[in-house]
Amino acid sequence: MSSQGTIVQLTENFRLNPDLGEFVSTIYSKAFRPQKVQARRIAVAFSLVSRVESPQPTDEYIQILNAVHDFLLGLSNLHTVSRKHRENVGYELHVKAEAAVASALIATIQEYLPGEDIFVATPHRIQRQAVKAALSAGHFDTSISLSKIFDNMSIDGGKGKNTLKSTVTVDTVERLQGSEAAFVICLFSLPQSHIADLHFLLERRRLNVAISRAKSMCILISSAEVLRPSVGALTDEETAKGYTFLRAFADRAWSSNITVDIDAL
Q1: Residue 256's beta-bridge partner residues?
Q2: Is the C-alpha dihedral spanning 64, 153, 215, 186 positive or negative?
Q3: What are phi and psi of 119, to 5 degrees?
Q4: Beta strands at 2-3 and 6-7: parallel, antiparallel or unpaired
């Protein structure tokens, strides 16, 4: 907010829960004063999450779903492996695995907290398309019919029909700016083969916009290549600022590791 050339920071925040508000305010001169309290019903709902039994124990999608159920993450360290591509997992295959984890999270949130809006924030359009494809494929059939969920949600970046149930919006970070949702799933992971993209991913403004869209919970999917980059990758000052911001989020978050066998997807 500005008046006659003077910038005034508004410190009352009516969107973020206290934890997210405190974290986001670390990059500003004054801390936010949150005006809402995180609902206990989220913790209660997730305490009811249970594993899914499958007649095919080797089903990789069930493995992913159970990994998400085992630990409804605050920050997920995504590790993609491949027997066919032992040296380097290609970017498109990695994005497919990342999208599978995101869609498993969406299915779980929809099952245990129906009615809560969900954003999936992606740095790149290829990730947006991969998540939409994963959702449309309907791999994560839980105890409730996902077809009913899909009938009542939008995956077209907010251009779909009005819904009575929650809306799932999948879009790039830039297009989500100015919007909000109860849950935000941020896709900020990279395979070893694409570490050159680290500078783009670790832009602090982009990270801040993505994380601060969440009203109740931000779930950030990342990878070792992003969370533990080489020293050389941080010689750029702006990249170093973004990495510091990301690590601060990781240090405050409840975290888990998920390994996805991309050959089985």
Answers
A1: 76
A2: positive
A3: -105, 145
A4: antiparallel
- What is the spatial distance between Cα 112 and Cα 134, in angstroms, rounded to a whole number? 20
104 beta partners: none
- The Cα–Cα gap between 46 and 109 comes to 8
Picking from 117, 147, 126, 121, the residue whose alpha carbon sits closest to that of residue 135 is 147
Distance between CA 29 and CA 209 in Å, rounded?
17
Mapping DSSP to helix (H, G, I), strand (E, B) and coil, where does residue 137 land? helix
The span from the CA of 211 to the CA of 23, in Å, is 10
Helix, coil or strand: residue 103: helix
Cβ atoms of 69 and 108 within 8 Å: the answer is yes
Q: What is the pLDDT of residues 169-202, one digit of tens each?
A: 999 999 999 999 999 999 999 988 888 889 999 9
Of 30, 45, 70, the C-alpha closest to 216 is: 45
Mean pLDDT of 237-265: 89
> Hey, what amino acid is at 59?
D
Three-state DSSP class for residue 256: strand
Q: In this structure, what token pair is assigned to residue 184?
A: 């935000």
Distance, CA of 160 to CA of 133 (rounded, Å):
16
Distance in angstroms (rounded) separating the CA atoms of residues 78 and 39 = 28
Q: Is the dihedral of CA 95, 97, 103, 105 positive or negative?
A: negative
* In the chain, beta strands by DSSP E: 2-3, 6-7, 12-13, 33-34, 75-81, 118-122, 168-172, 181-188, 214-222, 255-261
Global pTM? 0.75
User: Quick one: which of 253, 248, 179 has its CA closest to 15?
Assistant: 179
